[in-house]
Every structure is written in structure tokens, then in C-alpha cells.
Amino acid sequence: MKKVAVITGGASGIGYAIAEKFVKNNIQTMLVGRNKAKLREATCELGKLADWILCDLTQLDEIPGTVQKIIDKFGRIDILVNNAGVHLKKAMTEVTDKEYQDVILTNQTSVFCLTRSVAGFMQEQEGGCILNISSMASIYGLPYVIAYTASKSAIEGMTRAMAVELSPLGIRVNCIAPGFIRTNMSSVALDKDPERKKKVLSRTPLGRLGNPEEVAHAAYFLVSDEASFITGVVLPVDGGNSIGF
Ligand code: NDP
Fold it and tell me: Ligand 1: residues whose CB is within 6 Å?
């Protein structure tokens, strides 16, 4: 039986690379996003094992219905990748309450809401894998990303909290902390800030940005049966950035 995966933000960047890896490995893959044109284009490129469903994850009350539609279509969800995220780079003293809350809503609260819903079905089917995506911002102090840092730090704590509750039910929960990966999000944060980019590269022992595919390889491993005794970990995929001097 084919496994069924759900990837939020799967139409671009890291999420798309994970979808590509899953499809290549015969996993039925459902992309969740809020941009119909992007989702259509991505599934077209990915081929017949990919499908999409529209859901703006900030609309929390739409999440259970979206999960139910996926279950109605495929009968189960074996893998959930909580990848969707937004970034806000701004001096902390300039960030408004609304901007702060919006980042938390997308990057943190929706992850709780979606995982709660999917985990209910995984519990019934007696198994599943959840993969969260955090960031270097949760490992060391990065200036100008206060809300993003708060959300991604929460993701790592939530990964451990989910793992201890869900693993006894057969549901493994892990997290990848990507370093600086070449995507739209990182180019917005780095391209207009050469000093920051220089600093990133200077403390990355492998001396370059990562490619989304390099995160996808690790994601595939963590949700595969080869990782059957791994739960509750945060795996940096960062070229050594988190331990670099
Ligand atoms: P992208 O901007 O390419 O991807 C983010 C995705 O999230 C988009 O597809 C976006 O869809 C989707 N998304 C955002 N908000 C919502 C929402 N409300 N509802 C549904 N979908 C939404 O960035 P990356 O691929 O770089 O980022 C993927 C993840 O990796 C994020 O969680 C990010 O924080 C994390 N990360 C990235 C790093 C990097 O260097 N690139 C480093 C560390 C972590 P839409 O186009 O519709 O907005």
C-alpha cells in the first residue's frame, strides 16, 4: 500500500523539494497551500502521485475540514510535514503586535492545530510520522527576527512535547532545523544584506548555502522506516552552521 503524505507549503522551496523526493519514492503526496496557481503548477511538475488542496493555515477553523477532505480522498495520512512558514525581518522595536501575532499564527499555532487534527487519524490507524521544520533562529540569537525566533523555538519544544505524547501511540515526531537554504525566503532575508550573508557563510564550515534537496534527503530519512527508532530529535541540516565559530 502506498504511503500518503501531507506537506504544508509544498508548492515552493524546501516543501517542494520534499514533495519531489516523496513522489520519487512512490509516496502519494498532498500539497497544502494558499496559492492555487502555484499549487497547480507544482503538482503538474511533480506528476500523478501529487495532488493539492487549498487551505490558508491562518484560518484555523478551516483546518479540520481540510484534513477530513484528505482522509475522504486517500483513506489515511501516514506522514505530515509541517513546513509552511513566513518570515519577518525587522528591528524588534518596530514590530507591531499584529505582525508578531501573524507570524506566530502561521508558524506555530497552525502547526498545533493541524497536527492535533492529523494525529487523531494517525492514532486510529495506529501509526504515522510527523516532521516539523524549525530554524537556526531557535538555536542561536539572530537579530531582527523576534517573532520568527519565538515561533521556531516553540516548534522545537513542541516537537519534544508531541513526541512524548504521541510516540507511545506509534506516531514518531521529529524536527529538522535547516541552516541557510537557497529559497525565496532566504534570498529575501540575505540578498539585500551582504553583511549578514557574509556572516552566515563565515560561520558555515561547508562554506555555502544549502540546497532544498539536501533538506529533502534528511526529511525522507526521518519519515522512513529506516528511522524507526528515532523520535523527538531536532536534526540540523546546516553545513555545520549551528556549530561554526
Ligand atoms: P518559501 O517561502 O519558499 O515557502 C514557504 C511556503 O509556506 C510557501 O509555499 C507558502 O505559500 C507557504 N505558506 C506560508 N504561509 C501560509 C499559509 N498561511 N497557509 C498555507 N501556506 C502558507 O520558504 P522556504 O522553502 O525557505 O521555507 C520552508 C520552511 O523552512 C519554513 O518553515 C521556513 O521557516 C523554514 N526554514 C527555511 C530556511 C531557509 O534558509 N530557506 C532556513 C530555516 C528554516 P505561499 O506562497 O502561498 O505564501
Answer: 8-9, 11-15, 33-35, 38, 56-58, 83-86, 106, 133, 135, 178, 180-181, 183-186
**Model confidence over 172-212: pLDDT tens digits?**
999 999 999 999 988 888 988 999 999 999 999 999 999 99
pLDDT confidence tier of residue 123, bands split at 50, 70 and 90: very high
**Per-residue pLDDT tens digits for 62-71:** 999 999 999 9
The residue whose C-alpha atom lies closest to atom 21 belonging to ligand 1 is: 33
| The total number of residues written for the chain in this structure | 245
Write down the pLDDT at residue 192: 87
Instruction: Spell out the domains of the chain, with CATH numbers in brackets.
Output: 4-181+211-243 (3.40.50.720)
Given the residues 16, 100, 148, 220, the one annotated as active site: 148
- 16: CA distance to ligand 1 center in Å? 10
Angle among Cα 223, 33, 101 to the nearest 5 degrees reads 95
Number of neighbours of residue 156 by Cβ within 10 angstroms: 17
Can you read off the three cell numbers belonging to residue 209?
A: 548555502
Q: Is the pLDDT of residue 20 over 90?
A: yes
Nearest-angstrom CA–CA distance, 213 and 20:
9
What atom in ligand 1 is closest to the CA of residue 56? 19
Task: Decide: residue 75, CB within 10 A, 0-12 exposed, 13-18 middle, 19+ buried.
Answer: exposed
With left for phi above 0 and alpha for psi between -120 and 50, is residue 128 left, alpha or beta?
left
Cα–Cα distance measured from residue 197 to residue 226, given in angstroms and rounded to the nearest whole number: 35
The Cα 125–Cα 145 span in angstroms is 39
Q: What is the mean pLDDT of residues 217-225?
A: 98
